[in-house]
Here is the input.
Amino acid sequence: MNLITRGFHGRRGGDPARIPPGQYEAHDFPVLSVGPTPRVDTDDWAFTVTTETGTAHSWTWDEFLGLAQERPHVDIHCVTRWSKLDTDWVGVSVDTLLADVESTADYAVAHSYGGYTTNLPLEDLTDGQAWIVHTFDGEPLAAEHGGPARLLVPHLYFWKSAKWVKGLTLTPGDEPGFWEQAGYHDYGDPWREQRYRGD
Amino acid sequence: MTRPTRLDGNVLAGPLSEVFSVDLTAAARLCSVCGDEGVCAQLLVYADGPGLVARCPGCAVLVLRLVRTPHGVVLDLGGTGCVTIPLGEEP
Here is the structure.
């Protein structure tokens, strides 16, 4: 007779092969913020892609919802060491938003309501790797988690998935964002534990 | 839902003591954006993210970022404004 069951450990089918080194599986959804939570009304919301030549492409909330919607089912990994498996989102692929954008830029900076920024290679935002999401787990994305819409780039540490996102600026060179300026890794691959600059 | 934790500037005392020999949380601060006057211990600190982020209690402007990495302390004081640090009586 087993006196200790797996249930005592609180696991719900977690797969260790899906947890990057140095991470643990979280079953809640921690809220991490660097300032007051912006409260953005969808009537006032807009998403803008600005190219390196200054050309801007913008979508209102209704226009954004009218684009092709995708349902990414992904694992997410925060640099503060929690990972959350099997998360469900609804949103628009960055590929869709960039479809009519002419650019030769290699990098992008995501800008958020509230002033947060993060930088990514453009090739990490395309080819089905990134979305602007507005729904989490079947519900409108809560403001604490970045609603009305956030960037979702699940293959990089979650600080790259900017909450309250309002736009992407395409840039020829790499321009470090909020945490990247402050000592965090420029790229942030959780499988290579690229937490800090120099890792 | 878990909510973010906002603390006051006293939480900065330990991390800043690794860098400075004086207690900056007791220093008077004049915000260069909104003119708010107070001591650094009154800053609003967001501590549950990847680093410590301190903001002005008057206007929420970014005052300080502090990240402890395996390679050292990264400290951005770019929004500090002007601080006055008491040094005691001259001999």
Remarks:
- Chain A touches chain B at residues 28-37, 79-80, 115, 142, 144, 159, 178-179, 181-184, 195-198 (CB under 8 Å).
- The first helix of chain A runs from residue 61 to 65.
- Residues 44-192 of chain A form a domain with the Sulfite Oxidase; Chain A, domain 2 fold (CATH 3.90.420.10).
- Confidence is low (pLDDT under 50) at residues 1-13 of chain A.
